Amino acid sequence: MLPAISAFLGRLRSLFRRRRMESEMSEELEFHRERLREKYLQEGMSEKAAERAARVRLGNAQRWQERLRELWSFRLLGEGVRDIRFALRLFWKSPGFAAVAIATLALGVSANTAVFSLINGLLLRPLPVPNAQQMMVLSYLDDAPRPGYSFCTPFFRGLEEQRDAFQNVFAFVNDTFQVRGESGNVNVHGAMVSGQYFPAMQVNALKGRYLTPADDQEGGSPAGFAVVISEGFWKSWFNGASNVVGKTLTIANTPFTVVGVMPKRFMGADPTRQPEIYAPLSADPIIDAPRDHIHGGTHAWWLTVMARQKPEVDLEKANAVLQSISTSVLRASTGESEWIKDEEKHHFRFAAETGSNGFAYVRSVFRKPLLTMFAMCGGLLLLACLNLASLLLARGAARERELATRRALGATRLRLIRQLMIESFVLATLGTGLGIVLTPFVGHALTAMLSGGSGPDSMVLDISPDWRLYGFAGAIVFIAAVLIGLMPAWRATEGDLNEQIKSGQHAQQRGQTRLIPRLLMISQVALALILVSGAALLATSLIRLYRSGLGFDPHGVVNISFSMDKQQLDGEPLMEVYRQIRERLKTEPGVKDVSFQFIVPLSHRNWNKSYSAGGGEQHLIWMNSVGPDYFKTMRIPLKQGREFIWSDTKASGMKIILNRAAAKLLFPQGGVIGRQIVDHNKSAYEVVAVVEDAKYRDVRGPATAAGYIPMQQDEQEKPSFNAVVRIDGPWAPLVPFSKELAARVAPSIPAPIVRPMDEVVDTSISTERMMALLGVFFAGCSLLVTAIGLYGTLSYATARRSNEIGIRMALGAQRLRVVIMIFRENAVVVAIGCGAGLAVAVALSTILTSFLYETSTRDPWVFAVATITLTCVASAASLLPAMRASWIDPMQAIRSE
Amino acid sequence: MIREESTDSGSLLQGTLEMLVLKALARGPQHGYAVAEWIHHVSHQLLKVEEGALYPALHRLEMRGFLNAEWGASENNRRAKFYRLTAEGTKRLDAESQRWARLSAAVAFVMQSS
Quick one: pLDDT at residue A636? Predict the structure, then answer.
């Protein structure tokens, strides 16, 4: 063993055996003293003299032990602790500097770790199942640019028995279950899973058992349908009753038997959903009644399919196996033969990709915005570090004399750099610590903004910290400490000792030594400008998006969704219920208009149909079925014709209202009212009105061609409509009112979900909102940080020049001249920084292209506003120290020498 | 606050003492007192090893793995800490004595030159 390693291990051991080592040391010395005494006695000394001579020879026992102890202890450790204490004392003495430094860092760090925790929860964290790296997501490809992830039942069943490459192939779908509670039905997040789902997950149930292939049979297992519930649901719904296994849950008016409880850490295969109830896939005809996806063949694309690979199989092999069976599965899928032939021609094949972190649809939506946000956060943190580096540099210059004295007393340069680095390390740790404390708040605010509030599709994201987050924070501490400290420490300890001590406080900085601080400040200004112009672009785009005009007026409109699909009534009696709902709602104070719509615009639910007019071309039209007075309630202008009325029933002939875009598409020559259009079944509809265009699927881009049919003529079984209520004043009272109303007119339906239209609109552009809000927040922070930096460095610099300024003023310099002289220093820095920043910002802005709505990444106005804002802030920050310098009393400044 | 390593002038002496200690232990395990006595005796009472240097040297050698220490009974039946050369220590002693031979010969050449 190398001596150094042996010494290290010895010291390490001594850390834990200090007591014993100390007693051994004193025993060893005691033995030596005893032998000396005996020797002196033999030489003929008296007892007393021998005793004293031995004592004198060995000296102070305390000092001895001290020396040996020092030998066995880590010198660096001891010195490190001392340095940290010294650093803390220094910060305590200049609390302003410390507070600014720590707050700046905390700001940067909390933004970074918060966004990172989102990225971690959404993109990085593997599923909490054994050997998560074996999980795969299956997809199908043809010549289309993007793979498909939604499977139809025949595809999945064709793959389910595939055992060459996979241990299990399983499917699941997220859904909302109607569970009967004490007071009517309640909506609960759930998932329907295929038989192999739980065997593939390999997580055992907390109580009872999980679902097996035997449960996933048509009509359930012989004992009826089984469900497994989450630990959370067990606690909230069953109050954690120990005899929960075997109890009955009534879902969609059908009894299901609880056979097991899954532990809390199990959250399903989609990390953004966390279902409360897991039901077998084959229960779909009951749970989704009156719809039935199982028997929907190749017309119901509803399943996410995943697999657990065999340990010895790699991705390539799995893909090869999938490719080899693709055609046979496609041919066996019971699809129309024309479609199968078409797919085959376009190289239809199944594929596998790594799925260790499960499958979440929202990933594809949020990946790019999150990574862009992360880059912006990184920029802010870098800015904070640069800022601290320049502040420390300025401060290091002020500490020149202290450091020079210490070097004169024998401290090596390395030792001083170490000391200064420890100071920056302490700063970084404190800042990061504070930042981490703030992280959960920022993180939850961001998740809430992204997940779209209380909507039915809102996502659940676990952003609790784990080792990845702590590792990330540790990396930040390290990088920040080096970024902040190394250069100032290097600079502060170089130079000629004699010169420094002689010139003391008034060392004139030479041109070259001022280059580095200036470069730091320039890059700070440039970075700030990049962040500010990025934010300005995003904010401009968001404002334009809001101003683009939706075609309807969302303010004061509230949607109340009634789930009628599981109750008894249908047809005319159901319409009667809706009519009652409308009459009751109208009596509520503040309610002005009430109508119904099937699809809530911008809610990502769509419905389309093809129509043709006069034997012409077929056109795809986006459809909605609406109630009487719908356009009045939504404030969509009626251009010609009339609104629907209650008497537009199925018996009175099919009616349709077109928007302007659809009317233009179907009747380019005009003359629309009273004309007929036909759908692909040759059913004819009479156009009774033309309305102004309104956004339907997406806020971005122009309104699509849309058609509206009367709700009484809707062909669905037991259609569930949303009441649209235009209300003056607060909408909150509608929540208890509609719950009570539903209980009265349709007692078995779950409490209606009340959602203001404004929230729907906000959610539909949540990415843009988050990016713009965060961007503006970051821009504000970066302006603040830059201002602090410019102010701080200039203040230090002027404080050191007070003597010179005093002399200038004594010699007759005007105050204004002094102000200009000081101000000029920063003006140059800001001008160069802005120039450089502008160039980089213009080059980088193309990254944002896909987030911008009708805003050019080169928009000169946006960049001009960003530059002017930054310049104003920078000028204000630089003017203060300049003014202060001009108030220097010349006599006092000179006398202080 | 400032504490630098103070090695320069003492390094020759320190290294030499360590060599002497290793040499003393080459004859077999011994306790610190015996090491000091042996050096004193063998050097014809010319070298007197200060306890203040001896024990740090012993501990340093132990720590770096050149010596093993264990507690045993001394000749008058008292508990004492005995040091024993390790294989590393024997190697070190060889290297040190060669170095010393070269060094002393070199010094002798210089001092005898006219």
Answer: 94
Q: Residues A560, A563, A567, CA angle at the centre, nearest 5°?
A: 140
A22 touches chain B (CB under 8 A): no
pLDDT tens-digit map of A586-631: 999 899 999 999 999 988 788 888 899 887 888 889 999 999 999 9
Asked if A31 reaches chain B (Cβ–Cβ under 8 Å), the answer is yes
With 90 as the cut, is the pLDDT of residue A199 above it?
yes
Binned at pLDDT 50, 70 and 90, residue B12 comes out as very low
Are the CB atoms for B70 and B82 separated by under 8 Å? yes
pLDDT, tens digit (0-9, with 9 covering 90-100), for A151-162: 999 999 999 988
Give the closest of A68, A86, A412 to B56, CB-based: A68
If we measure between CA atoms, which residue out of A467, A424, A360, A453 comes closest to residue A116?
A467
Tokens 């046979």 correspond to what residue? A328
Dist. CA A593–CA A558, nearest whole Å: 11
pLDDT value for A599: 92
Reference A517, options A788, A790, A882; nearest CA is: A790
Q: Taking a C-beta distance cutoff of 8 angstroms, is the pair A816, A337 a contact?
A: no
Q: Tell me the fold of B12-112.
A: Arc Repressor Mutant, subunit A (1.10.10)
Asked if pLDDT for residue A30 goes beyond 70, the answer is yes
Query: Who among A4, A28, A64 is closest to B32 (CB)?
Result: A28
By the 10 Å C-beta count (0-12 exposed, 13-18 middle, 19+ buried), B68 is classed as: middle
pLDDT band with cut points at 50, 70 and 90 for residue A454: low
From chain A, the residues in CB contact with B4 under 8 A are 410-412, 415
- Predicted confidence at residue A200, as pLDDT, reads 93
| Helix runs in A121-266, H state only | 153-160, 197-201, 231-237
A24 touches chain B (CB under 8 A): yes
A859 — pLDDT class (breaks 50, 70, 90)? confident
Q: What is the mean pLDDT of chain A?
A: 86
Of A4, A24, A411, the CB nearest to B81: A24
**Contacts of residue A387, Cβ cutoff 8 Å, sequence gap at least 6:** A104, A524, A785, A786, A788, A789
With CB atoms and an 8 Å threshold, state whether A68 touches B55: yes
What are φ and ψ of residue A478, in 5° steps? -65, -50
Contact between residue A356 and residue A126 where contact means Cβ atoms under 8 Å apart: yes
Is residue A817 scored above 90 in pLDDT?
A: no
Does A409 contact chain B (CB < 8 Å)?
yes
CA A444 to the chain's CA centroid: 9
Q: Supply the angle between the helices A766-800 and A815-844 in degrees, to the nearest 10.
A: 150
Q: Is B78 helix (H, G, I), strand (E, B) or coil?
A: coil
Quick check: A10 contacting B, CB < 8 Å? Answer: yes
Cα Dmax for chain A: 139
Check if the beta carbon of residue A748 is closer than 8 Å to that of residue A253. Answer: yes
Contact call for residues A593 and A632 (beta carbons, < 8 A) = yes
- Whether B2 shows a pLDDT value over 50: the answer reads no
Taking phi over 0 as left and psi of -120 to 50 as alpha, with beta for the rest, A146 belongs to beta
- Nearest alpha carbon to residue A272 among A125, A377, A442: A125
Q: Looking at CA atoms only, how far is residue A401 from chain B in angstroms?
A: 16
- With 0-12 / 13-18 / 19 or more C-beta atoms within 10 angstroms meaning exposed / middle / buried, residue A756 is buried
DSSP A509: P
Contact B33 A24 (CB under 8 A): no
CA angle, residues A316, A321, A325, in degrees to nearest 5: 145
Residue-by-residue DSSP string for A687-701: EEEEE-----S-SSS
Q: The tokens of A331 are what?
A: 């041919």
Tokens coding A583 = 């009459």
Q: Show the beta-strand stretches assigned E in A480-537.
A: none
When mean pLDDT is compared across A106-115, A585-594, B43-52, B62-71, the lowest value belongs to: B43-52
Are B88 and A3 an interchain contact pair (Cβ–Cβ within 8 Å)? yes
